[in-house]
Amino acid sequence: MKIVRYEAGGAPAWGVLDDGVVLAAEGTPFAGLRPTAREVGPLDDVALLAPVTPRTVMCVGRNYRSHAEEFGNAVPQEPLLFLKPSSAVVGPGADVVYPELSQRVDPEAELVLVIGRTARNVAAADAWSVIGGYTCGNDVTARDIQKADGQWTRGKGFDTFCPLGPWVDTEFDPADVGVSCTVDGERRQDGRTKDLIFPIPFLIEYITRFTTLEPGDVILTGTPEGVRPVERGNTMTVEVEGLGALTNRVVAET
């Protein structure tokens, strides 16, 4: 099932993507969502929102060896974790605001895990049972602020710095798929999930040993090499092979 969240009459609503058409749905994701026969419209004509509203946005840094090396960083011996505030989350087509405080903003294409049920102390062998689906994410980063601060809260946490979408696929196989980012049509990042340093089951066990994840929470699994800055006016597109494209425009702060 491909779950979407869209704007209907000024309010968010849930739907299911079926052969390019959004069908209205009843219920909520991971708790009995049921598609109806009512067509909302073709996907391209529907105003999509972020497909989840996470309480916790957990992110994994330097989870591709090539990305760690391109910035001259050591490959981590265990997952390097950080959080983004939920206020950073935006959906497909939303503007990403280039903050006046920064002189360098980078997009980072990532596969995103969406938690499907409450998860605490989950063994790696049981990790797949708590994942409700998968989507695309862009871990937008004010690189100069990240480096100057020595920790990542400000550099990663600006409003609009976590685009998610376009949908959540509940039956996706993430074992070996492409993860890419293009800027104004120029391919910059092009990695594969098989190259994750810390695989998905390991991440689920590691994270849930210290914190509880709830349905709708997300884990951004890391970004491949090729990270370069964007400018105001650029258009960023993150793609995870089989999960669609997440496109956002960079705009000046007003």
TrEMBL record:
<dbReference type="Pfam" id="PF10370">
    <property type="entry name" value="Rv2993c-like_N"/>
</dbReference>
<dbReference type="InterPro" id="IPR011234">
    <property type="entry name" value="Fumarylacetoacetase-like_C"/>
</dbReference>
<protein>
    <submittedName>
        <fullName>Fumarylacetoacetate hydrolase family protein</fullName>
    </submittedName>
</protein>
<dbReference type="Pfam" id="PF01557">
    <property type="entry name" value="FAA_hydrolase"/>
</dbReference>
<dbReference type="InterPro" id="IPR036663">
    <property type="entry name" value="Fumarylacetoacetase_C_sf"/>
</dbReference>
<dbReference type="GO" id="GO:0016787">
    <property type="term" value="F:hydrolase activity"/>
</dbReference>
<feature type="domain" description="Fumarylacetoacetase-like C-terminal">
    <location>
        <begin position="56"/>
        <end position="251"/>
    </location>
</feature>
<keyword id="KW-0479">Metal-binding</keyword>
<keyword id="KW-0378">Hydrolase</keyword>
<feature type="domain" description="Rv2993c-like N-terminal">
    <location>
        <begin position="1"/>
        <end position="51"/>
    </location>
</feature>
<dbReference type="InterPro" id="IPR018833">
    <property type="entry name" value="Rv2993c-like_N"/>
</dbReference>
